[in-house]
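Methods: example folding runs. The two proteins below were folded one after another, and each record is reproduced exactly as written to the output file, sequence line first and structure-token line second.
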Amino acid sequence: MPRIERDSLGEREVPEEVYWGLQTLRTLETFPISGLREHPRYVESFVMLKKACAIANKELGMLDASIADAIAQAADEVLAGKLREQFCVDVYHMGAGTSFNMNVNEVLANRANEILGGQKGDYALCNPNDHVNFGQSTNDTTPTALRLAVRLHMNELIASLEGLEEAFHAKGREFDGIIKSGRTHLQDAVPVRLGQEFAAYAETVKKCRNLLAQAACSVEELGIGGSAAGTGLNTHPQYRFRVVDLLSEWTGVAFRPATDMREAMQSSLPVATVSSVLRNIALEIGRICNDLRLLCSGPLTGLAEITLPAVQPGSSIMPGKINPSVPEMVNMVCFQVVGNDLTIALAVQAGQLELNVMMPVMAHNALTGIEILKNALRQLTDRCVAGIVADEERCRRYAFLTPSAATVLNTYVGYQQAAAVVKQALAEGKTVVEVVRERNLLTEEQIAQVFDPVVMTEPGIPGKTG
């Protein structure tokens, strides 16, 4: 038998077995948009926030202890993994996140009612608005839960970046003795070491990780306690400080109260800051994946300087074909993250006066971006970079074939004569060294010193500086 619930719009039947209530029912009817549900980290952050609010209000004498304890117990059950299917609001819903805030309020209230000896829908014991949402508004809980979720989820992305950084460093050390032709403009350039290329990738990932760690600080400022318009109406003066202290204690993150609660409600600059860093990480990781795909092109008609691990057959029609499947996947993830950032940017600037109502789409895109990027980087590390094998012989052949090796002649014979050497070498199918010998430009001793490819990959003038 369904139960009857009432709100300011009237009364409706609600399925007896569910823990959500009438406002969630109205949301499900009004916003069947994508079929996507809120990210688990967002659910957990919202529930953790509700628990902190209940405890803070109990300690300050603003909420009955038995009710607050029941709310906290219900929250702990959700945080332990229970009732997750009850958080069923579509990610595209009511502005500011009212629909999801009420979904959380109703689930916690109904479970608290059971804990208190009542039944679901018997809101005389624990009411979604009057008790679970006491001293709160969607307008301060949504931005607080959003920042909390983003900050906690960033820890996993930082760990993924650390793993990728170390994998590139390991390959840099492994490949450090392999000489190859550098390439600029996709044309032959002076020799480099394969290990140097991979060490450079590691440095890029390190810088991305540092940028993300810096951005994390911006979302550690929480505006909880601002209530409806950032003024703190209907809240105890110490309430917001206690809530932030509890969240810091439980998470180990040094969250801090907003310096201006109005600003924290009006502005989503911290989310934009994190999103822009995610975009920049995606751009850099995408660039590196492009390199990996080029370096492994072949196996016979491309560069083929490295081989990526074979993770699956590459073609449904060409037998034996192996593709750079993992870097291809990562590229697509990077494109999505860049697109997510554009959505967040548009939402961030769409705020008006005391509130930005576009926070639900920010939450979805920020948390989705972190999720897919951290997962993609783990696969890139474990299923690709860790298993890369170099073709040392091919790399060395390219290094000695490249006419750009003539660059070392600049300080001996000048740019114009060196260019003439290159032109003759290409026209006659000879190496640069062969043409140098023909033209008697250097002695054999000088040739051995000047054209040492290892020396050419370090700062200095080959044959003139130590």
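Second run, written to the same file directly after the first:
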Amino acid sequence: MQLEITGLRSGYGKVQILHGVDLTVPPREITAVLGPNGAGKSTLMKTIAGHLPVMAGEIRYRGNSLVGHTALSICKEGIGFVPQDHNVFPSLTVRDNLHASSLAFEGADERVAEVLRRFPILAERANQAASTLSGGERQTLAIALALVAGPDILILDEPTAGLAPIFVDRIVSWVRELAEEGMGVVWVVEQNPEKILAISETAYVIDAGRNSEILEARSLLAPGRLEEVLLQVQE
């Protein structure tokens, strides 16, 4: 089942940021979302995940509307969210972070063990406080916290920002594996666009809270094409 967003309007309080965005996230595919700073990309992700209210429009998954659902309810529907910031519990150990995120789900111990098998670096750091991890390790933990709930759709809000190249490559590889296993992924792209577009199917360009273009992601890898598209939406 694909996640379908139509005519979505959202924002903060009375300030509307999204003005009717459409987005489709199919299973087994990575969908990229691009646009200039302030375009509404993070607002879109937070609204889908239930962290911001829907002012108008529709979010549907598995044939059900998710409008008005809590963030926990949306997570239980199978949609995981990795925000860009404040995405781990710094004072807790890696293992306790994972257990805290799995408490609302059956088979918590098995879920944590499965995630630690997928990310050996976290197994090695299981008893360390999250605050002591490197940036790449912490971002790996943030992704693991979403995966422990067993989502079918994963929302990533620029998970490679500021990371060393080795962790960028690892995260790109892990996310590609998740899509190959059947997960639908939506990835907000600000840094390392070439690596992410190379594994994505569709790219949505957002500008001023609206859809600007919907493109085949790999078409943006042509020399100068990505710069051309982003410059167009900034004019």
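Comment on the second run: The chain has a mean pLDDT of 95.
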